[in-house]
Design goal:
Elements: H1 3-25, H2 38-44
Length: 45
């Protein structure tokens, strides 16, 4: 088997393993609003 083909198979396997790892480690992050009432802050100053 030529070296280039073995190298190509290894690179493809590493890419597939990396995509699988990243897809398993991704979690949903809950969304929270970061808006605040600016009129109340302006009146206090």
């Amino acid at each position: 088997m030529p070296r280039g083909l073995i190298f190509l198979i290894l690179v493809i396997l590493l890419l597939v393993a990396g995509v699988y790892f990243l897809s398993k480690s991704a979690d949903e992050v809950p969304v929270q609003t970061i808006e605040s009432d600016v009129t109340a802050n302006a009146a206090a100053n």
